[in-house]
Design a protein that fits this description.
The protein contains 15 helices and eight strands. The relative contact order is 0.11.
Length: about 425
Amino acid sequence: MVGPAAEVENRMLGDFRTEDERADAPRSHRRKDSGKSLIAMTLVVALFGVIGVGGWWAYNNVIKDYFVAEDFSGEGNGNQVVITIEEGWLVSDIADELEAQGVVASAKAFLNASEDANNAGQSIQPGSYAMEEEMSAAAALEFMTDPANLTLDHVVVPEGKRSFEIYEILSGYTGVPIEDFEAAAQDPEALGVDPIWFEGFSDRQVKSVEGFLFPSAYEFDETMTAEQMLTEMVKRFNATITEIGFLDKLAQIEDPDPDYDPSANENQTFYPPTNGEFKIQPWMALQIASIVQSESGIASDDPKIAQVMYNKMYINPYSHEQTNCNCFESEAIWNYGRLLNGEDAITSGENIDWGAVMRDPDNPWSPSAVEHAGYLPSAISNPGAAALESAVSPEANDYLFFVTAFDDGSALFAETYAEHQENIDVAEENGIQ
């Protein structure tokens, strides 16, 4: 699910002029004068009232938008975007690019920040910067004026790429054979993955480097081995996990249905067995982060989608009668299995028997099969910081379904399948589905 680019609206302030013209009039009887004076006073009060209301409206709807530059707060939303600055660009060019890529809310805010910092934007050097969406203009300026953040020669690994796609990217950039990456990936622990990420496996889970190759811009070249490159990506993943406090936050994730044990449900086989305990292992949260990364169209929805996944895993399906098992039910999972096997992905618009393929008991990547409910063999993508954060800080809700429904990538959520179908209709009306 791909989130589209946001529209940029330019507003112009018109030239407002007022003229007050008066004409002399003969006096009448004093009683009439009093009446006219009262009427005149009432009209004046009313006029000022109109001007006041109109002025307030003009300020909020025209003047404020024109003079006050729209700006984000903070240092970003966790979604990475690589900004490339070309030789000869002016500060205004940089500002326009940052706004177009969603890094800053407006070019004007960045220009203002540069002017307030003694025109610091003029010191920004050509090259690439691995930034985040929705940074404040001041934070973006500070980041780009720090020489340590400048990458002159780089390869970009976008968020959500699968391991085999990453091998193709790195091989195409460095010339190192794809087979070398595949061989290096056979031993994730040798690349720096902590063994804690493989604890609590059932016989369905497999050791994989999937999920640990952190998306970013890297200064790799043909002199490096595949093992060195993958090790650097795992190192970046480990640093991000530490910064988020990922492992420490696992214990804070709440059981959405404490009176229910998915392993005790005789109508399904849940992996791994819970042994009567609600415990989120690190690799479980990583799998959910990878699904969020694959399914979410906008970062603000990530925590909601993460909670939907926990709801699907741990809420009794027979209490709500909306799903057939404690399964993720994500189309992205089924397509991951196809891509892993060298097949093409199939979108939801294709005319196939989705019910049959999603519940195929012989396919380990069927996301709705009661024969292998629960967690997957591995993660299905390599998530960025925002998706990782959402998996350990989900936003409490009772939703079981969602669909991307708007141009900005945001989704509509539902507790019932009937509501979900209505949301799909909205998405189709908006041209999203």
